[in-house]
What does this fold into?
Amino acid sequence: MTTQEIADKLVALCREGKFNEAYNILEGFKQWGEIIQETHGGSVGDPVVVGNHFTVPMTSDVTFKDGNRINMEEICLYQVKNGKITKASFHYDTSMMG
It folds into this structure.
């Protein structure tokens, strides 16, 4: 798969709410899903692909298992190698995390 195809697949899964399938693409993302109690909403923007990297803007309105609810905006940066996501970093305002 090309970087564009991987980006499009990840975005499509997230937009459909198929986060468990998206987590299988990005194994480290599983930890995020395990601390969420309820998802109230959010959005997934269009991917921007440059070489073997892509970014995706996302918003999340979630309640964590500890009861804290947050609205979050982030930029997700992914690196692709040999048809798989090999690195991911998530950039957001950490002050909202309490």
Q: What stands out?
A: The chain has one domain: 3-93.
